[in-house]
Amino acid sequence: MTRPRLEEFRFDAGALCLDFVATLGRRGDPEHRRVERIPTPDRFGEWLRECGLTGADASLTRGDLVSAVVLREAIDGLVRGVLGGGDVTADARTVNQWAECPVATPRFDPRTATVTRHSPEPVAAALAEIARDAVVTAGRAASLPVRVCGMDDCRMLFIDQSRGRPRRWCSASRCGNRAKVAAYRQRNTI
């Protein structure tokens, strides 16, 4: 099954926690137009597996999804608050609580030359890993530098790793292209 492009997972933000925040797309749009990329526990499990945070055997519940969304929004609020100089106390509390949870133990399998993660609570361990990345990312947001996509409807957080750090959009092929098309149309309308 091919998903519409807006529903595809984004793994181009430059940090695990920012990729997680990108599971809600079009943050600049009104709430009813936003794109929820993890609307079900199964879809959230798919995201975790694609990140390598859980194995195929991890079963997720509605409660896991609710916890994930609460953490995701706290990370978003924390990073945006740090960038904008806002009060991040409540968001930091939520993120720090998750960061204190145990993470999965990596194990190397010499037969397959792969790494697997083991935890008695794989979903909580995955959320703890994301939260720990968020703590580090928020603490270094200015020096990384974390940016907000310049497209009004997107507003995705990303780390600008380009030479000279001139990026304005989360992706040149997504929002950058849309901005160029819009500018072209505006120049060529009568």
TrEMBL record:
Superkingdom of source: Bacteria
Pfam families: ABATE, zf-CGNR
Residues covered by the Zinc finger CGNR domain: 146-187
SUPFAM superfamilies linked to this entry: Jann2411-like
The protein's name in its UniProt record: CGNR zinc finger domain-containing protein
Organism: Actinomadura rugatobispora
